[in-house]
Amino acid sequence: MSDGPDDELELTSALVPLFVITNGRHLPADHEYEHTALVTAREGASAAVARALSPEARKVMDLVADGFLSVAEVSGHTHLPLGIVRILLAQLEEDSLILVRKPIPRVERAERELLSAVLDGLRTKFGA
């Protein structure tokens, strides 16, 4: 096992407290960066700003560079807690490096009787 500069360092370890990774930033509101929200890198994101990112934030940028990933997927791939990922995403969005697509709200459930009435009407009209 070599200790050369090319050895890849683990992003998180017992020696790196999580508050160091987030620069002491606070967790965003619960409604922001839900686990099903989709994240992607913004086209033309400033390379100079991206180079100044922490290793964890650069890892997130690498993951979302080729398309959309959910916040939960980013957390899974980086092996970071969901709260830490949400803080990193907030920082990246403030720096205009990522786009976040909020999850589509759940549709209210339609009443079964209403759907049956519509189906009966269609059958009557079109003879199915």
What's this entry about, in short?
It comes from Streptomyces aurantiacus. The chain is mostly helical.
Labels describing this entry:
single chain, 128 residues, Arc Repressor Mutant, subunit A, 3-stranded antiparallel β-sheet, 6 helices, DUF742 domain-containing protein, DUF742
List the helices and strands and how they pair.
Layout: H1 18-21, E1 38-41, H2 47-51, H3 55-64, E2 69-70, H4 71-78, H5 82-94, E3 98-101, H6 112-126
Helix pairs in contact: 3-5, 4-5
Describe this structure in words.
This is DUF742 domain-containing protein. It comes from Streptomyces aurantiacus. Helix 3 (55-64) packs across helix 5 (82-94) and helix 4 crosses helix 5. The chain is mainly alpha-helical and 128 residues long. The relative contact order is 0.18. The longest helix has 15 residues, at 112-126. The protein has one domain (18-126): Orthogonal Bundle (Arc Repressor Mutant, subunit A). The protein is built from six helices and three strands, in the order H-E-H-H-E-H-H-E-H.
